[in-house]
Every structure is written in structure tokens, then in C-alpha cells.
TrEMBL record:
Protein's name according to its UniProt entry: Uncharacterized protein
InterPro entries named in the record: WD40/YVTN_repeat-like_dom_sf (IPR015943)
Amino acid sequence: MICSFDLMKKNSSKTLNIRPDLEHRVTNYFENTPRGQSVAGVNIWFLDAAKFRAGILLLLAGSHDNTTDVTFFLAMIHYKGEDSKVKWFSAIPIDLVYRQNFESTKETSFVGHVFLCIPDQTSNSSTCERTDGIVIVYPNFVQSVFLPDDLKGRNPTLLNKVVPIPAGTKLVGHACDERFCYVMTFDGAISCVRLLPRGFEDDLADDNAFIDELCALRDSVSQDDEPLSIFVSAFILFASKNIVSRSY
């Protein structure tokens, strides 16, 4: 059940009971997969929701009694009018190497740990072109999904990109601004999630050379010019995403 809350009147303004519709769609998905068979005991978890294209985009997880695998879904609903039907619904494609991190018998592997992150420009745009798509933050990886321009029926997703989070890295938060999504780690690093052209990472060599030049500048700064030395040192740590160390 989805409830909207009026901040001015401080009460619930509308309630939509879409669970039966979602259960029907999730059941149909499992029964129509390549190994599809009649399923029972379908479970659905509501993980997150975000404003998107004059509606609400829902992030769900689903499973059933015949498997411990977890499948993630996106669903689009609108609050206009009295129609409480789901307008668009799709499974999220995820490779096995990432899906095996989640089990329906271990809800803590995904409940409270998988989030939607949609910047304002993406949310208000009628197309995912010139955006980084719908960003989904998982415990061990980040995913960008391009949704169809026409969110109706079973229109397929247009693009799906996944980047793993380095082993041993613990995420502690995420946030969005007007254009980008950011993830924060336990060691104090803040990373911006971007979709970049193939080969873009080759340009990082220039960034590393720039940091080396800054280090040389720091070492050559006179000890009498302490403010400049502190500034350069802090900027080097910032450019290296070492946020904790630079906050001295």
C-alpha cells in the first residue's frame, strides 16, 4: 500500500492499494521466464520509491517458494485520478555474479541496503538521454538503468550498466543533487556516479600527473608560507578523495 502525505495539512492525502497488481505482475514474470513454471508463495518487498516524471517510481524485490534467488523490479505509478493500476513494470537485468549476493532467506542482504538515487534533472526529464539514468545503489555495486521514454505496459529498459564497488569498501550513505548521484564510504571518500564514454578512464593518467605536480609544489613551498602549504596539502587529499584526512 502506497500513501502520500500532505506536508501543509499534515495528513495522508491519498492511499493506493497496488499490492495485488504487483503480485500479479511478479507472478507472471516468474511463470514466463525460460524455466517458467507455476509458482506459489510469491513474496514482494518494497525497497524504495522516488519521484519520477510526474509519478512515483518504485523499487521492489521478489522471490517465490521454489527458489531463494531474488529478482529486482521497477514499477511506475501515478497519483492523478482514482486509477491505482501500475502503468509500467519491468525486471531489472543483473548478471549472476551480482545476483548471487542476495538470498530471499536473508532479507538483510537487500532490505534496507538497496536504494534508488535519481537526480532532479533526471527525475524531471521526459527521456534518459543526456542523463546518467536511474541509479540504483547496492551494497557491492552501483547500477545505471535507462528507462523507456514511454513508461507504459512492458516497454523494455534501454540501457543497463553496472560498476562494482571495490572489495572491502563499506558504503554508509548516498545523496543526489540537481544533476548527479553520490555515494559515501566508511573511510570518508565521496564518489560521483557517472556514465562516461568508453576509454574515458584513460584520461585518469593526466589526473595522476596533475596530483604529482601538486605534490612537488607542496614540497617546494617555503615553510614560511604555511597557509599556502596547508591549502595545497588539503587540495591534494581532496583530489585523491581522501576526505577524512583533508579535514584537519
